Amino acid sequence: MAQEDDGLSPEARAQRAAAPWLNAAWRVVGGVLVGGGVGWLVDEKLLHSTPWGLVVGLMLGLGAGFYGLLQALGVVGRKR
């Protein structure tokens, strides 16, 4: 691993080490945002069932985000 870090500043090494954890966090945030956005669109444009489309979309997005989080953390666990 020392060869990979040759020529990198300490800040660059820290950013490289944090990348998998940031990826895992962004998967949760992205899942919630996408699920909430789709739920809102379903409410506003298709079913007019406010707030149920948003609630269901947020729950599905949260589930998908946590699934992605577990995938990402599994990848981190295998690297060590």
The residue ranges in which pLDDT falls below 50 over 5 or more consecutive positions are none
Percent strand: under 5%
Which assembly state applies to the chains in this document? Answer: single chain
Radius of gyration: 18 Å
Q: How many DSSP helices?
A: 2
Head-to-tail CA distance between termini = 12 Å
Report the biggest beta sheet as strand number plus sense, adding barrel if it closes.
none
Structural class: mainly alpha
Helix content: over 70%
Structure summary, number of beta strands: 0
What is the N-to-C order of secondary-structure elements (H for helix, E for strand)? HH
Mean of residue pLDDT values: 85
Shape assignment: elongated
What does this structure look like?
By secondary structure, the chain is mainly α. It has a domain of 54 residues. It is 82% helix and 0% strand.
